[in-house]
Amino acid sequence: MADELLTVPEVMARLKIGRSTVYDLIRSRRLRSITIGRARRVPAAALRDFIDHQIAEAA
After folding, report:
1. CA atoms within 13 A on the CB side of 34
2. What's this model's pTM, rounded to 2 decimal places?
3. Higher pLDDT, 59 or 3
């Protein structure tokens, strides 16, 4: 698989934010994710895109 899928706790750890904030970002479609069964996964590329977008907005 070319792209790693991250769990919500992994995203929380990488961004150093809480669970509800991660789900708020997903719900508002600022952070792309997929659902596999009942599990929510965030592609690593989507996390990189989110971070790049946040950096661009801050500049």
Report:
1. 9
2. 0.90
3. 59
